[in-house]
Hints:
Blueprint: E1 3-4, E2 9-13, H1 16-30, E3 34-35, E4 38-42, H2 45-50, H3 54-66, E5 68-71, H4 79-84, H5 94-102, E6 105-110, E7 127-131, E8 141-145, E9 149-155, E10 164-171, E11 175-179, H6 184-201, E12 204-209, H7 217-231, H8 233-239, E13 243-247, H9 248-257, E14 262-266, H10 268-281, E15 288-293, E16 299-303, H11 309-316, H12 326-343, H13 346-364, H14 370-373, H15 386-401
Parallel strand pairs: 1-3, 2-4, 2-5, 5-16, 7-14, 12-13, 12-14
Antiparallel strand pairs: 6-7, 6-15, 8-11, 9-10, 15-16
The chain binds NADP nicotinamide-adenine-dinucleotide phosphate and magnesium ion.
Amino acid sequence: xxxxxxxxxxxxxxxxMTRIIWHSIREKLIKPFLDLELKYFDLGMKHRDDTDxxxxxxxxxxxxxxxxxxxxxxxTPNAARVxxxxxxxxxxxxxxxxxxxxxxxxxxxxxIIKNIPPAVATWKKPIIIxxxxxxxIYKNSELxxxxxxxxxxVFTPASGGEKKVVRIHDFKGPGVVMGxxxxxxxxxxxxxACINYAVSEKIDIWFGAKxxxxxxxxxxxxxxxxxxxxxxxxxxxxxxxQYRFMLIDDAVAQVMKSSGGMLWxxxxxxxxxxxxxxxxxxxxxxxxxxxxxxxxxxxEYEAAHGTVMRHYYEHLKGNPTSxxxxxxxxxxxxxxxxxxxxxxTPEVVSFAQTLERTVIETVESGIMxxxxxxxxxxxVDRYALTEEFIxxxxxxxxxxxx
Length: 402
Ligand code: NAP
Ligand code: MG
């Protein structure tokens, strides 16, 4: 007796080892239990190349239309991949393409399991990082100067008004300079996405910047963020959410001493760096999920890790693998729960929660893949193979929903 899901979920298939896991999850953990329409897009490397990457754009448009997507990890081609897959060109990162179409913010959330203790003993609840993924040093212009001279910022108004000039430095000899920017719209969208996410998860929001040093640039972020928080005051109060603005160094120190359970909104570079710190602090990449949230409330769920290429090549050689499918399963449950929430179908949300609980209880009973075995406490003496883990979860899930 499968649970009926009212509206479709957009499915974005991917590459390598995660593609193999993806199909098993869908066939063994989702389809037998849900009567669900999937709008399928194959973002596998070959098909992106065949469609001149149109499939990625179409998938993003479908997420806009239906509101919820779930994505398998995909290859971002580099020179070696262009050769390996005989690609027409070095296609852009699918995540980058989707993010720019949805104008979204990425939130990374670790999965907490009792016998996989975090490296930081005080962390009891997830620390979720929201990274502003536009601008700053990621869209910079820089210049190595090889002699004495003056570096300036020049702003030329499109309307033809007077130029604005700010001196950066009078170089007495060789050095280096950098220019970067952000836009009010993008910062506003970021703040809105953070508010949407925090309200949907009912967690506090922390935002850190270096506004004592960068009074205009970082101060601009602080003020825009505060403005959006002010507009959402009623909504935040209703959800019981506190907002804290801190100096970024204070935020880092507070996070280390906290028990977790907050959304940590980060400027682009801080988010890049801190998300890796938090991910390794919580144990394994295989336990890190990620969701892209657009300012108008569209959601795309995925595992934070890549396609696990090394395991895939072992698999192709016919060797057994022990690849962790937990984050990919949680990508599916995240999307299903959100679908149920938007459709007002609590039985769908409840299925997603049952599947999540089943996965966590499976690991807590000592059945886990090798990456987790290495950090489990108490120790376990054997690890499950890729397919074996999914099969155990499927068996337990059938009992749990019966
Ligand atoms: P990766 O897929 O994240 O894997 C790196 C290593 O981390 C693996 O070799 C494995 O370590 C460990 N690992 C990651 N996920 C695991 C899991 N679920 N279970 C067990 N171990 C896991 O990164 P990569 O191999 O450097 O990148 C492969 C491809 O993924 C690249 O083409 C890249 O473009 C793409 N990528 C995609 C996304 C995305 O779609 N969101 C994100 C990142 C990377 P051991 O080898 O030590 O077992
Ligand atoms: Mg990083």
